[in-house]
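As agreed, record copied across for absentees:
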Amino acid sequence: MRKEKGIHLYISIINFNDIILQEESQTGNVIHSLHALDTFFTSIEQYGKKVSPQDFVIEKITGSRLHIYVLGEPDPAFHVVKTISSYAHNLSKYINSDIPKYKSLGDFKIQIGADYGKFYEFEFVSNDKFTELTTIGYVANFAAKIQALSKPSKLSISKNIFDTLSEDEQKKYEKIENKAIEKYGQKYFYSIPLSSVESPLHISDEDLEFAKKYANSDNLSDIEFTKIRKLLNFQNLSKTQCKELYGIPVFADVRGFTTLFKEDDSNLEEMTETTQNILKAMYGVSTENGGIHVQFQGDRELSLYHNIPESNVSGSVHAEKKCFKEAVIASMRMIDAVKPYNVQIGIGEDFGRLFATKIGARGEKDNILLGETIIEADKMEDKYAGADQIAISQKVYSGLEIEAPELAEQFTKKDDYYIIAIGHKQYLRNVSSNQQTYNTSHNSYNGAWGDLQ
């Protein structure tokens, strides 16, 4: 773990979900979207390393968002940020207009957010030797929030960065007041159209043409989505070797955690230790209860539980393995697992077809799930799940009714989704109470209650 300072930069393709849904509905796959996403982010990585080989760092890809940080003092770091932002803006137009294989896709619409401050580089290492780089600190969280609030085709920056600019440059930015950042101890951020960002370095035709050469280095026909036959292993995947499966993505997000980081970084060490413990607890629950860790997204974890089709191995038939009960029980366990750190989480789940792959930045290191199901699971967590709540879609609930009806009974219907607000320990107490009531009324023991996890 290493303490650093610099600018956190988030580049997001804000209409990528729409692009995926359109391609999936029209063709039944997401091959063009996947390929274009990989080309876009890989080209930014290549250009960033050319501009600032020592200080430009790709942290990870989370869905359609690229996490970057630029080390150093504010002025030189922001010079890199402006150059990268201008390149990304030009590239987002070039991808569709100049690369024929992507012409069927909608134009990429991007938004960018940035903040400057201190943070820790943390390499998560699990007991099973899994590693994942992530950064911890107020600056990472606030930059992500600014990016989410930024309008399309805008670069938005924090007051920390704005105050370092010359008076002439400050005049180019619009001052934005937003109540959503008050909990961060902030009142304003500042935005400029990406078309008005002046790159300190000339962006040549050759720089953009790298994307075309990279896109043409393999054929779309080389991308293969094969069906899942056993538990998914991301280590066996690549941009061309992908998997199609049916499962439940589980988003687990720590509620209100970002606001616990003090803007002056006075509790950075303490919060870094707490964050590590929370991430380890989440990872442990996921991997020890039938799930697959996909990635950390700040203080949020994405994990996956999926069905495994019926198989015949050496004459022995193995029935189809369902994932509904497994995913919900693990989510309950996760609520309990983080309580010792005085935090609460909200969890969202959906069930359906998913596409799994590894792409782009840092040599295909990033685990990616694509498809409408991941979009819906994200919405369940973000819009519907409160603190210590699990929000599931109708599809998850329907599967749960069949696989574990006693568990489905614990959920309450809300519009077109279902909510439960208990951890696993409370669930066991509820079931035990129901069992005692049943036994008393029937003067018997019902073995159906015995199969609990």
